[in-house]
Backbone:
């Protein structure tokens, strides 16, 4: 079957084209959709199997990263998005998109009530960082997006990527239920609790992560490519997992 | 409503850690902690607490005080409290977002008179600060030019001192009455006084031309018909002054120059430096190269990328604004040059930013910086933060730039901001570099609204600035407003919704619409229809305001409605403000009244040509012995110590901490990043990008700038600058045949006057630089596709001038056929052969070795003072042999295309020793470099640190030795040792000559020295 992916854009999102490219390279059809167009016609969401919230600086992150975008999306599109999730469809939120998902309460959503339980705050160094990190995927996780992935190198590019939870109980819940699906290995760039770089929800169909899989789509994106040890753009593995979930089922 | 938001756990506020760290060193070690609260103030009454909390706070991490003070909750944890807010009328992007967010939350946009303000509170825990410390603290926390602070101590707080409930919100209104000036009756001294009083910056010949225009019978007649008298209106005068400003007309580069070479006793007349040395150079080259599409006349230069795409490039400076408000100046520079790309042809999409930032000595003590100037470190921090926010928030990767530190930039930082873009080769069957402005098209303004920002900004920059200076002197860019606009523009372009466009930068609408009107043959501008940020702008202010994030478009009637509707759907404002005509006039209206009428021919061609004199005298440059310096003894320990000092020199040292704050890989196109090597921390020579995902073709971005080489002769500075940019393009694997460049001149005032006695010499330096630029570009076949100049770069403080070193930045954009064949600078494997490519000459004048040895001797290196005993220099500056270099570059490229060059690093600052150290660091491998005759008969210390251009250090596998040497035959290429060491081992760089060790250093020491700055 043809898989259709919707990439949300507008108000300062800036990795929309890159994410669209990654989905195209992974075999999906892609439509870039401005949030205002979706608000004008929420039923448009029914046309897609996958929804992508890309990185960027929605509303400049002036009032807190992803905050205003999350408020806007939730206010106008909560029901449509809940329906999308209930129908077993997939969502990925990257960087600013991850921030939007947690601030809406879509991740981790342990109580099913969209209550924000975790958040992403300023890096402990106080500045934006662009660098590459190595991530470990949690064995035993049911996350669709991370199937067959154990370790992966990806770039991070953020000023507010420090993952924290509301309290210890939430953190324990994430760990016990294998929702803390991606952790920084070796170097934790932002001070995230338990080195958490990405989480999923109970269904394993929603992934939010700070690193950018859509920025590792060619071997030459990897800083080590010139040493001829990189044979493909490994970030695509994550995106392809999402697309193949539908096209192979 | 006043809401205060702060972190529940102060330890979670990363912003505060960084601030405390910086203030502890710069202000007082007693500063222990700072709690930050974000303040939101509004008089909007329909905002309930829950909604407000929803949009302004993060419930997981933050606490909210609603109409109560965070300072009370945190009492006991602070001693001083600063509440910092922008002054009235200064662009506040956070408040713009807050306004939008409230509007979105309540379901309707807020009315313009509704007040939304933001502030930031810093609650500082420290011991009591002395008066001096308090002054320093203030200086570090806010810029009184654009910001205000309310400062309250803990005891004052207990005594009941409070913040204002709401800050002043009303900008002083100007009269909308038109002022008239009868220039036709003014005598010379009156004309000059008028120019000065009104801040027009026009000379007597220029004012006289204006006077003569108003006396012309045809002009008098036309004005009469339009209902205007003989007197000039303020709107007209301001438009003429703006159009004729140095900034917009490049009067100096276009001046007639009488150039005298005092040594040779010859003289020549140059009609225009721009036409004869820059434009003609490109014209010549374009006969042999077919990839140029649009050069000089548009907002950026355009070349062919492939059959489907074009790429374009522009670099500008934003020096004066950055001297006043480093953050605002830099961010405005970035978003400003982004708009040049958006406004190129039918509109291009930005794909990279690149910048070169030049500051004074950031390590200088406070007492070394003249009163009245910001410390270079403070300027650097502000500019850097501006570049970070401007680039990152726009989603445009920052690539291939650099930093330059020189005492001469203490008076005026140079902030070069560049952007490249991509556009389809054709849109609707027509070349996309072409756009149209036809009679009947509506003039539309898109994006931000107009305020008093930047009115006469350029003029204010030369006046003393203090707390009373008008906030209009500076502007602050808002990348998000612009991002919305640029996303929309590309969407509208692809739907064919407009015919022509250009950006609003310096000179605002006056400049953009004035230029566009040249295409159609006239325009009517309805100034009263322009959307304003607030009431009370005089018509002339509306015309010349430099408010940011605006484009001007020409739109045909049949697409106008769809354009405006789509803009609204994307949250962007588009307003019709006039119509293009073909009657030969700029027709300015306010209400239904004609307030100005200016003939297009006069406006664009009426400027009298400037006439300038240039007198050249070469300064002494014979070889000076090294005896008496620390390198006089031909001693390995001294050479090694010097290498480590050079690596720690701020110009050469790693700026990784600063550069990693730039997003250099958004858009997923990066191939060559700022850092390379096994630890991803060694320098690359330039950037390589892959702008089209399904193609392996790439773009290279590199720069060349060597102001110190110009101390003896600016010709060499220009020639070496072109070579450095081209050489870096070659080093990363770029195609020698496909390259283009931008020239950016930043000069101290070259116009001779009683106050400026060096004018004729500086003008001669400018002529010399142009000659060097032309000769080298012709030799390399490197077309200049766009450029800029800034000619008043000096500060005058307390009667003392600090002029910048004449600086030419050459920014190169070239192509590479296959990005997978690009080559990084790091050594790859032990056993690989090391080659030194190019001839090394005794050229240490202007080198960094010279700078350090002069400092050791406590002298300066001012060549113009020579033979002053207080100066120190090492003799000839680097010079270029372009023909030899080109052959070397072409052959090296053949070897790279065959894939046999494993690493390549160009030799620049710090010479061979520094480059070898960087390549070794990148691979975390050692090297044994055998100089012997590879550097001729040169003294060893000179060979190690000479900065002769056109050289590389490259490595090749042993198995490819023969093929490599075969390709390189006929060039000055010498085998010079091999890569050594083991992975993870304690490796060393060792340089020997005829069996004698002349430098020996561990890689760990190299790393320590190179990373000691930040």
Residues:
């Amino acid at each position: 079957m043809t898989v259709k992916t919707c990439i949300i854009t507008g108000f300062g999102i800036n990795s929309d084209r890159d994410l669209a490219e990654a989905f195209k390279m992974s075999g999906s059809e892609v439509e870039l959709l401005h949030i205002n167009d979706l608000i004008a016609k929420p039923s448009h969401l029914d046309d897609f199997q996958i929804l992508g919230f890309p990185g960027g600086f929605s509303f400049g992150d002036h009032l807190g990263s992803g905050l205003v975008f999350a408020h806007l999306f939730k206010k106008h599109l909560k029901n449509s998005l809940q329906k999308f999730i209930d129908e077993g469809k997939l969502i990925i939120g990257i960087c600013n998109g991850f921030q939007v998902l947690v601030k809406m309460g879509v991740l981790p959503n342990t109580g099913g009530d969209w209550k924000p339980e975790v958040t992403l705050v300023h890096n402990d160094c106080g500045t934006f960082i662009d660098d590459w990190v190595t991530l470990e995927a949690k064995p035993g996780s049911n996350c669709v997006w991370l199937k067959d992935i154990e370790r992966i190198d990806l770039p991070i590019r953020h000023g507010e990527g420090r993952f924290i939870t509301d309290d210890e109980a939430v953190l324990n819940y994430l760990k016990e239920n294998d929702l803390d699906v991606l952790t920084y290995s070796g170097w934790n760039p932002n001070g995230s609790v338990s080195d958490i770089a990405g989480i999923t929800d109970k269904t394993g169909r929603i992934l939010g992560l700070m690193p950018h899989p859509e920025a590792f789509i060619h071997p030459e994106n990897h800083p080590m490519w010139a040493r001829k040890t990189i044979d493909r753009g490994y970030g695509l593995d994550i995106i392809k997992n999402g697309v193949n979930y539908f096209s192979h089922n | 409503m006043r809401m205060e938001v702060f972190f529940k756990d102060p330890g979670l506020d990363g912003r505060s850690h960084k601030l405390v760290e910086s203030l502890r060193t710069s202000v007082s070690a007693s500063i222990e902690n700072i709690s930050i609260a974000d303040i939101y103030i509004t008089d909007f009454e329909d905002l309930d607490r829950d909604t407000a909390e929803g949009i302004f706070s993060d419930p997981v991490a933050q606490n909210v005080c609603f109409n109560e003070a965070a300072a009370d909750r945190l009492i006991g944890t602070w001693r001083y409290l600063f509440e910092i807010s922008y002054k009235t009328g200064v662009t506040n992007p956070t408040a713009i977002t807050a306004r939008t967010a409230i509007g979105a939350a309540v379901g309707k946009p807020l009315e313009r008179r509704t007040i939304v303000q933001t502030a930031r509170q810093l609650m500082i825990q420290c011991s009591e600060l002395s008066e001096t410390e308090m002054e320093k603290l203030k200086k570090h926390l806010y810029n009184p030019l654009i910001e205000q602070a309310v400062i309250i101590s803990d005891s004052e707080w207990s005594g009941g001192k409070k913040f204002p409930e709401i800050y002043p919100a009303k900008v002083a209104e100007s009269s909308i009455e038109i002022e008239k000036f009868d220039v036709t009756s003014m005598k010379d001294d009156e004309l000059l006084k008028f120019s000065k009083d009104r801040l027009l910056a026009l000379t007597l010949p220029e004012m006289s031309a204006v006077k003569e225009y108003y006396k012309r019978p045809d002009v008098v007649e036309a004005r009469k018909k339009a209902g205007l008298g003989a007197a000039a209106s303020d709107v007209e005068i301001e438009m003429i002054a703006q159009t004729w400003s140095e900034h917009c007309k490049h009067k100096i580069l276009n001046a007639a120059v009488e150039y005298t070479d005092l040594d040779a006793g010859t003289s020549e007349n140059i009609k225009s430096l721009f036409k004869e040395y820059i434009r003609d150079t490109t014209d010549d080259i374009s006969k042999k190269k077919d990839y140029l599409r649009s050069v000089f006349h548009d907002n950026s230069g355009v070349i062919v990328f492939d059959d489907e795409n074009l790429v374009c490039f522009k670099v500008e400076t934003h020096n004066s604004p950055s001297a006043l408000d480093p953050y605002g100046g830099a961010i405005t520079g970035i978003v400003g040059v982004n708009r040049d790309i958006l406004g190129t042809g039918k509109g291009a999409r930005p794909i990279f930013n690149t910048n070169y930032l030049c500051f004074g000595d950031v390590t200088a003590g406070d007492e070394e910086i003249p009163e009245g100037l910001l410390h270079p470190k403070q300027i650097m921090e502000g500019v850097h933060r501006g570049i970070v926010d401007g680039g990152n928030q726009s989603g445009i990767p920052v690539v291939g730039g650099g930093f330059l530190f020189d005492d001469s930039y203490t008076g005026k930082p140079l902030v070069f901001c560049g952007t490249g873009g991509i556009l389809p080769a054709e849109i609707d069957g027509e070349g996309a570099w072409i756009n149209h402005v036809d009679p009947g098209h509506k003039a539309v303004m898109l994006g931000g609204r107009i305020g008093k920002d930047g009115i006469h900004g350029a003029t204010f920059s030369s006046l003393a600035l203090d707390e009373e200076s008008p906030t209009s002197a500076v502007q602050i860019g808002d990348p998000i407003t612009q991002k919305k606009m640029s996303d929309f523009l590309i969407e509208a372009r692809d739907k064919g919704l407009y015919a022509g466009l250009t950006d609003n930068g310096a000179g605002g609408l006056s400049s953009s619409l004035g230029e566009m009107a040249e295409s159609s043959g006239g325009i009517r501008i309805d100034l009263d229809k322009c959307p304003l940020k607030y009431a009370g702008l005089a018509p002339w202010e509306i015309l010349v305001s430099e408010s940011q994030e605006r484009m001007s478009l020409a739109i045909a009637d049949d697409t106008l409605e769809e354009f405006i509707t789509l803009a609204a759907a994307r949250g962007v404002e588009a307003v019709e403000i006039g119509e293009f005509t073909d009657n030969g006039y700029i027709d300015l209206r306010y209400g239904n009244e004609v307030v100005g009428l200016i003939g297009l021919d006069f406006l664009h061609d009426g400027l009298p040509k400037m006439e300038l004199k240039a007198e050249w005298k070469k300064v002494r440059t014979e070889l000076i012995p090294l005896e008496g310096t620390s390198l006089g003894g031909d001693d390995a320990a001294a050479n090694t110590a010097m290498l480590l000092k050079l690596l720690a020199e701020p110009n050469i040292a790693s700026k990784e901490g600063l550069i990693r704050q730039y997003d250099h890989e958004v858009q997923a196109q990066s191939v060559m990043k700022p850092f390379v090597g096994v630890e991803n921390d060694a320098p690359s020579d330039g950037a390589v990008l892959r702008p089209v995902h399904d193609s392996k073709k790439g773009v290279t971005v590199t720069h060349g700038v060597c102001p110190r080489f110009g101390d003896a002769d600016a010709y060499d500075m220009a020639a070496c600058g072109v070579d450095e940019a081209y050489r870096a393009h070659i080093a990363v694997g770029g195609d020698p045949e496909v390259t283009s460049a931008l020239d950016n001149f930043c000069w101290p005032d070259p116009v001779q006057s009683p106050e400026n006695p060096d004018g004729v010499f500086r003008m001669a330096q400018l002529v010399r630089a142009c000659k060097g630029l032309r000769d080298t570009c012709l030799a390399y076949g490197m077309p200049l596709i766009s450029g800029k100049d800034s000619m008043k770069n000096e500060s005058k403080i307390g009667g003392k001038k600090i002029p910048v070193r004449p600086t030419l930045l050459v920014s190169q954009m070239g192509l590479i056929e296959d990005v997978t064949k690009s080559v990084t600078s790091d050594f790859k494997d032990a056993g690989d052969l090391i080659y030194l490519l190019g001839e090394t000459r005794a050229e240490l004048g202007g080198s960094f070795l010279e700078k350090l040895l002069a400092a050791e001797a406590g002298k300066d290196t001012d060549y113009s003072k020579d033979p002053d005993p207080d100066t120190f220099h090492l003799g000839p500056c680097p010079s270029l042999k372009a023909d030899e270099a080109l052959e070397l570059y072409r052959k090296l490229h053949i070897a790279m295309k065959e894939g046999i060059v494993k690493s390549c690093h160009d030799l620049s600052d710090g010479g061979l020793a520094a480059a070898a150290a960087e390549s070794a660091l990148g691979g975390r491998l050692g090297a044994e470099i055998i100089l012997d005759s590879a550097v001729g008969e040169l003294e060893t210390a000179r060979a190690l640190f000479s900065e002769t251009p056109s050289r590389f250090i490259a490595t090749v596998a042993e198995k490819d030795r023969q093929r490599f040497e075969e390709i390189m035959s006929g060039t000055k290429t010498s085998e010079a040792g091999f890569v050594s060491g083991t992975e993870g081992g304690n490796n060393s760089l060792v340089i020997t000559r005829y069996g004698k060790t002349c430098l020996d250093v561990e890689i760990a020491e190299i790393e320590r020295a190179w990373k000691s700055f930040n």
Observations:
- Chain B touches chain A through 66 residues (CB under 8 Å).
- DSSP finds 31 helices and 43 strands in chain B.
- Chain B has a mean pLDDT of 93.
